[in-house]
Amino acid sequence: MTKEKHSFLNDKVIPFASKLSQNKGLMAIRDGMGFAITLIIIGSIPLIINSLPIDG
């Protein structure tokens, strides 16, 4: 990475991303999405097993 890109990231992007990650609203959305995705994955496993082509 060039020195200009590195300094741009350090001066502009990283402070903005740090402020964004400390936002309480965005933290709540992030945590809620993580919980929802976990439930979706756990709930989809029985559906996948149920749709297997097993005669019985």
How would you describe what is shown here?
This protein is mainly alpha-helical and 56 residues long. The chain has 2 helices and no strands. The model has no long low-confidence stretch (mean pLDDT 92). The protein has helices at residues 3-21, 24-50. 82% of the residues lie in helices and 0% in strands. It is elongated and about 65 Å long.
**Helix/strand/pairing category:** mainly alpha
Averaged pLDDT, please? 92
Care to count the β-strands?
0
Q: What proportion strand? A: under 5%
Q: Given the C-alpha coordinates, what overall shape results?
A: elongated
Number of helices: 2
- Secondary-structure element order, as H and E? HH
Sheet with the most strands, sense and barrel status: none
Task: Report low-confidence residues grouped into runs of 5 or more.
Answer: none
